[in-house]
Amino acid sequence: MKSLCLYIVILATLIKSIASFSCEDIYLDSKKTLYKAISQKKVENEIKYSYGTEYNTWYIDPCSSVENEPKDYTKEKCPDNSRVCLVKTIEFNDEKKRKVIDIIGYAVSTPVQDPFIRQGNYTLYFEGEKESNYSAEINFSCAGDEKSNPDIELDANKKKVKVFWKGICVTDNKTEPIKDDDGKDNNNKKSGGHFIIRFILIIIICYFIIGMCYNYFVLNKNGLDIIPHIDILISVFGPIFDKISDLFGRRDYRPILQ
């Protein structure tokens, strides 16, 4: 049972590390990465009352955590690893300092990277923070001004917040910048090919790691014997290695004269 749990942990870690999202791997039509194109956004709305003003302040950063916000307060902070966070504060008419009413985290952890992009629009899906239990979507759209603040929609019934980031157009190949418009179709095909190759590599790596763990922990094998099906690998690659060694070993050979 312990060995089975170990295999599952190794498999999940490998898949998550290879297929996880990173802003530095996402390229835009402007040939910049998503990491360089965007920065943390602070969007604030005011609600006026007779006794004071309530402020709803959103901190948004798809590329890094906003857990250090708000900086004006020492104890009240956004949840750890949160990418979208709402801070509610109030300022009474007879006071000059705001008081924190509530802090809610809406996007926690790293999303899985979707290998497909639809007409330059790109969407990230985040799980919600444990206490708020809200999920979040961050949408990047080609339309609009990149310098403008993102639009935010909060659906309390579905427990979901949607962020619409304007003027961010992701390339079709997404993993490398495009050179010109004529190469978009070719880059799109390459993107699908790269995904298939990565998927095959994940399976091969998982096969060897899980097999070695099984041979070591369950069958108590050591040395080269922990490699799964080592006898088959030796029989297949052994003659090839011998021929290569023999070929390079005979090159520039000079007999030793006594």
UniProtKB/TrEMBL annotation:
GO terms for biological process: autophagy; protein transport. PROSITE patterns: MRH. It is a single-pass type I membrane protein; Single-pass membrane protein. This is Autophagy-related protein 27. Residues 21-171 form the MRH domain. The keyword Lipoprotein does not apply. Residues 1-20 form the signal peptide. Its main location: membrane. It is found in: Cytoplasmic vesicle membrane; Golgi apparatus membrane; Mitochondrion membrane; Preautophagosomal structure membrane. The keyword Repressor does not apply. Belongs to the ATG27 family. The chain crosses the membrane at residues 195-217. Keywords: Autophagy, Cytoplasmic vesicle, Disulfide bond, Golgi apparatus, Membrane, Mitochondrion, Protein transport, Signal, Transmembrane, Transmembrane helix, Transport. GO terms for cellular component: endosome membrane; Golgi membrane; mitochondrial membrane; phagophore assembly site membrane.
